[in-house]
Amino acid sequence: MSKTSFSKTIRAFSLIEIVLSVAMLAILAVSGYDVLRQSLQTAELARQFTLAELMAHDLIELTTSKRNEDWNSLAAGTFHFAEDPVEGFIFVPGTETVDQFTRSIVLEQGQRGGQGQLVASGGTPDPETYIIDATVTWEYGGQPREVSFQQVLTNWKNF
Predict the structure, then answer these.
(1) Which domain holds residue 12?
(2) Is 75 left (phi over 0), alpha (psi -120 to 50) or beta?
(3) What is the domain count for the chain?
(4) What's residue 14's pLDDT?
């Protein structure tokens, strides 16, 4: 009889084995959850960067369009765009907040050096050139984020 009870004990799982298996499964589940959470956060941040880039490019395209319509509508300063039922998109001073994004476009009159090259400062103001900087800012994960694009606009109709 003792032989039969001994063989049953060997084939059965002990309580320690069950506890260890459950602990290992819990560790795997927690690490899997952490990987999934990190992946979702990365995907959300990538989505936000993509939206911010689209918004910044939109500002550049609208400014280029305004340049094509009327060079004299451009002026140095910080602006955003608003839609006017009569005039279409117009410059409005300041920044604009759309959802969690704040966007603006900064226009600076270009400056030329002695050989006609664009310079950041110390040159002669060029009334036929603007440097535009489209910036979109937002906060994610408690940290400020920013996307910024620059472009040079010239009054190509006068060249």
Answers:
(1) 2-158
(2) beta
(3) 1
(4) 82
